[in-house]
Structures are given as structure tokens and as C-alpha cells.
Amino acid sequence: MLSYRHLYHAGNHADVLKHLTLCLMLRHLNAKDKPYCLIDTHAGAGVYELRCAEAQKNLEFQSGVERIADCKALMQSVPEYYEVLHKAYQRSPSCYPGSPYFAASLSRESDKLWFFELHPRDEQSLFEQFRQDPRITVQRRDSLAALKAILPPQPRRGLCFIDPAFEEQNEYYEVLKALKSALKRWNTGIFALWYPVLGRLRDYSKNLRSESRRLNVPLLQLELRVSAQGEDLGMCGSGLLIYNYPFGLEKELSSVLQILKPLLCSRDGLTELNVLVPQP
């Protein structure tokens, strides 16, 4: 939605979870020489300056990336994440990379990347950053509708990273509808869907999980709740549903979640990893 800008939330606990996961998925794709395609449906601005007024409003990065900045265990488990952080710090020591920056940094010359973003300022930022990279296409259009036009992609290997704002209840339905259609068009693609965990009165993530299981494709779910889930409307955590997840990813993510829990979670927080539909 055009009212949403990720700049207010850059580097928070949700970013840490999804970007660590993205790095591991890219590791699996990079393990084979064959080129792949990466589609980022809600790409944002690419990089974020944490000293700006928007990021300073809630200081969400202090309970996210700042808490893992010197974690040696994570550096050993997911060195790619820290390589990209350090690359971004060369631009500015208070810069945090978004998912497009991770994808562009960790993919190869033979790979193809699509970045979609509706907000005009963020789309312009993306375009300026990657305008000289021939691998990358940046477009300002409805990403879920765009999937119909570009799937199945070339090359056929790849990942679709879906990271909506989920500001309205109907977004859950629309995303799931688009995901079902996309899996029919590209049944070999990896799809990663991020979701927020809200207070019980507005938490629709359980519907996402139950409906996703019915798709009968290999399905992995991970979740990080930094605090206990209350009745109010606040976000206490987030998770990802990974469809057609790479073999062995669940073991790597289990290790990452064990490391993250004492760093990011309160005493009432939790981490969870479930294979909802196993590999055949």
C-alpha cells in the first residue's frame, strides 16, 4: 500500500529474521552452477539510512540488527548476512540493506532479478541504485498482478520473495490467492512469504498456515515472537512460510533460531520451526 514505507521499521527483528532466511535460501540456489531468477514482490527502497527521522522515530533497529551486530555464532552460521552488512556500511556506517540489496549482492552475473515496488519514492531509489546492473529489472506496478505476466520466469530455477505490509485484512486473502495461482504457473519455484504475528484480535497468520497446507507442496514454517502474544493489536513477532523449500534448509534455520532467541526475545518470547508438509 502507498501509505506504507519500510523506512520506519528498517533493521528490526522482522528484518533480521527474513534477511537471514533469504541469505540461506540464496546459498542453496548458489550451490548449483545453473542460473536462477529472483523475484522480490515488495522490494522497498533497497537500502535505509538509520539516522534519518523516519527510522529514528521508533528506533526499531535497536531491538533488531544492533543486538546481533557482534554475534560470532551467527557470523559462523550465516556469514553471507554479515558480508552484505559490511558492504552496506561502506556506503554509510548507519545504513541497513533491504532484501533487494541482499539479493543483488549475493546473486551471480548469470542470474536474473526482478524488483517490484509501488511507492514512487522507494521505486525511484531502487532504480537509481541498480540502473547500471543489467541483471536487474525494477518496475513500479502491482507485484501480485505482475506475477501473472512473468511466471513461469526464465531461467526456471529460482525464488519469489513476498513481503507485504499486511495493513488490511483483505491483503491476506489477496496474497494467498496470488500465491495459489503462482504455484500453478511455476510449480518448481521456491516461494517465501513473510507474515506478521499480531495481537490475537487481528492475528490472521493461522489462516495463512492452514490454507497453505492445503496446497500440498513441501512447506516449511518458521516464527520468531520477541514477546508474548497479547490481545491488543501490536506486532509481537513475525514468521515465514516457505513453499518448495530447499532440502536441508530446515536444519540451518533451526540453528539460526536457537541463536536468535536469547538475543531478540524477552522471557516470554519464543521461536518455532515446523515442517508443515515434508519433502516427498
Q: What is the string of helix and strand elements? A: HEEHHHHEHEHEHEHEHEEHE
How many helical elements? 11
Q: How much strand?
A: 15-25%
What is the CATH class of the domain at 16-42 and 110-277?
Alpha Beta
Which fold name fills CATH's third level, the topology of the domain at 16-42 and 110-277? Rossmann fold
Q: What does the main sheet amount to?
A: 8 strands, mixed
Helix content: 40-55%
The appropriate CATH architecture of the domain at 16-42 and 110-277 is 3-Layer(aba) Sandwich
Specify Rg, calculated over alpha carbons.
Answer: 17 Å
Structure notes:
By secondary structure, the protein is α/β, with parallel strands linked by helices. The protein has a domain of 195 residues: Vaccinia Virus protein VP39 (Rossmann fold). The protein contains 11 helices and 10 strands. The strands form 2 sheets. An 8-stranded mixed β-sheet has the order 5-4-1-6-7-9-8-10, sandwiched between helices. Helix 1 runs parallel beside helix 6. The chain is globular. It starts with 12 loop residues before the first helix and ends with a strand.
